[in-house]
Amino acid sequence: MSATLPKAEGLHPDSLLAHAGGGFDQATGAVVPPIQMATTFVRDEDYEPVSPGHVYSRDDNLLYQKTEGLIAALEGGSESRLFASGMAAVAAVARIVKPGGTLLVQSNIYWGTTLFLRKLCARNKVALIEADAADLQAFTEELSITKPDLVWLEVPSNPFLKVADIKSIAQQCSQAGAVLAVDATAATPLILKPLDLGADLVMHSATKALNGHSDLLGGVVTTKDAASESWTLISEERKLAGAVLGSFETWLLLRGLRTLSLRVERMNKNAMAVADFLATHPRIEAVLYPGLKSHPQHDLAKSQMQSGFGSLLSLQVKGGREAALSVAGALDLFQRATSLGGTESLVEHRFTIEGQGSGIPENLLRLSVGIEHANDLISDLDQALAAL
Ligand code: PLP
């Protein structure tokens, strides 16, 4: 009896994803891989591992390799590494900057990243510069003056949905000898491929749309060049600092990835419909979504993003904090919870989380648009706004 695995090469990402990167389990023919729970693996009488690559589960395992291979293929990268959370992945990348070095980070990005980088850099004597990457001229000037070791972008940014010009910034980084890393969590690799635009590293919180079911924490970093110094450091960090993803979580992530393209397709469509509805609503002050023509970087977003603009958007409600909180409180279908990229739509008042001094407007609500029917999402927003 013999059967062959589907060949990954030449397959459309949708097909790769549907098969979770390829084929059945060779040992049993099972169409989904088994969950390997063992932490340690035996050696033979000559002290060679019985199965090459299987020594201790902090180092590596087949499920990591399968999931990492699939994500690397989606990103157009050469290797990926899974981490225990998005923040563990952020930390592994940030730690490539040695004491005395410089890190240039886009301002007003995911609060957890900003907070972590501020604390890490202060502790490790790394100069941290925060600058608005949507202002290309100012950002690249900053880059050429400060000559950072690492540049960190988030595209599109959370929760302001700003869009940085990755290609131009990548060119400047390569002239300045800086490593460019892009957090593309809010876009997914189906919409944005930073490595194709010249970035060295791309990172995702796999907690979000990659898994898509709000039931695991995970992170992933992918490199263009597996022989680079930065990748050696990041791989060492995963193995030696040990922020590895659990076997069950890796299995869940691989299962979630099977439906990524369907979910992204629906979420894109829903988010665009919701943004269009809100953009003309009399009680809305502003809608922040790169898919809208009114977005200041709409043309750039269109040129960088494929097949849609993602599922994250923010709105500012007329009437300030009270009005925003009362809209959030009146929503039925949108759940009041943090996070993004899940099948269920969520609403969040970011100011409550980040507080004074964070720069978040008090009337801002962030929406993560899920896979429900667009009409139900719009009706829910309509009734909540009508109750103002
Ligand atoms: N990057 C972005 C853009 C995020 O939105 C988040 C979490 O919300 C993270 C990174 C951190 O990911 P995690 O919560 O998986 O640690």
TrEMBL record:
Annotated signal sequence range: none
Family membership: Belongs to the trans-sulfuration enzymes family.
Gene Ontology terms for molecular function: transaminase activity
Keyword check for Transferase: yes
Keyword terms, alphabetized: Aminotransferase, Pyridoxal phosphate, Transferase
Cofactor(s) needed for function: pyridoxal 5'-phosphate
Coiled-coil annotated residue ranges, if any: none
Organism ancestry: Bacteria, Pseudomonadati, Pseudomonadota, Alphaproteobacteria, Hyphomicrobiales
A family per Pfam: Cys_Met_Meta_PP
InterPro entries tied to this protein: Cys/Met-Metab_PyrdxlP-dep_enz (IPR000277), PyrdxlP-dep_Trfase (IPR015424), PyrdxlP-dep_Trfase_major (IPR015421), PyrdxlP-dep_Trfase_small (IPR015422)
PANTHER family listed in its UniProt record: CYSTATHIONINE GAMMA-LYASE, TRANS-SULFURATION ENZYME FAMILY MEMBER
Protein name: PLP-dependent aspartate aminotransferase family protein
